[in-house]
Design a protein that fits this description.
8-stranded parallel barrel, TIM Barrel, alpha/beta, two-stranded antiparallel ribbon, binds flavin mononucleotide, 2 domains
Amino acid sequence: MSFFKTRITELFGIEYPIIQGGMAAGLISTSELAAAVGNAGGIGFMCAIQWADDLGKMEDEIKKTKDLTDKPFGVNVTLFTELDQAWFERAFDLIEKHKVPAIETSARSPEKWVKRIKDMGVPWIHKVARIKDGVKAAKLGADGITIIGSEEGGHPGAERSATSVVGPLMVDMVDVPVAIGGGFCDGRGLAAVLAMGGEAVYMGTRFCASDECIIHPKVKQKMIETNYNETDYILMSIGDPVRAIRTERTQKILEIEQNEGAAGIIQYLQKLHEEEGLSFSGPTAMNTGDTVQGILPLGMVSGRINKIEPVKKIVDDIVAEAETVINKLSARKYWKA
Ligand SMILES: Cc1cc2nc3c(=O)[nH]c(=O)nc-3n(C[C@H](O)[C@H](O)[C@H](O)COP(=O)(O)O)c2cc1C
């Protein structure tokens, strides 16, 4: 039996309990990244909403992934309500048509889509930031739950809970396997997740700092330079916060939120949308490399990432370190009076 066998490695048919979460905010989680994570022994998810304007591109990327790997990979469908029912229908149609090996949903309740997903008969995990949402998704039939803490990059949830609290709590609340994410980048993280009762470590930011991730080199460099205490928690005033590396733009947003509240920030976002085409699909500052006026939704763990490396090296190092840590802890002798 593999040292790292869990119900999640069994569910997806992968070697290591390591998941690269779906990421949008520009073109980020593409075929190259998902295939590289799969080839390294974990599972990577592409993110449908990054092709919100043209699902044909998602279809191309799914085909490309199949050319790059014969290992499992998945597509994340972030259930943002800004997209209409027909768009989601089409996304799920393409996932089914191309027999994508795994599905991840996130951001909103998957209730409306449960039957559609279950009929495809592929492993399905749902990601949440709140315990009650995870309990609900498990009841609805999700094969696994991912719980993330507010350390994470992207949309970490309005409760602002810590991974070390919601991780074990989620494990205790559901019978299905749980992946835990938000703030992990290495083998100590994987060992900690297993110690919390999680069955896979779930990461996004770490995989952005890889050779295979297509974000702009300037953004990768910015991640290396960023300290753990140099991210901002923006858009809390409108109840859908984003954690992002501190830039002039995130500071401006915080200032508007503080001085003008939700109404002011909605107006400002509208202006950005009109003037700069700010959206969750298509290229963003993550792709153009604007590290001053851009929003770079990367997690706190940027502060622990010092190198851009190939995905295979990242995964191999995580696995080797976790094994060492677990063996060391198991061999530890406690002094007794
Ligand atoms: C740049 C970026 C964009 C993300 N976009 C999405 C998204 O569109 N949908 C989603 O479900 N999660 C998204 N996430 C969250 C990740 O899938 C994952 O939950 C998170 O990165 C884990 O925490 P970590 O960043 O500390 O590793 C994003 C994360 C990052 C870093």
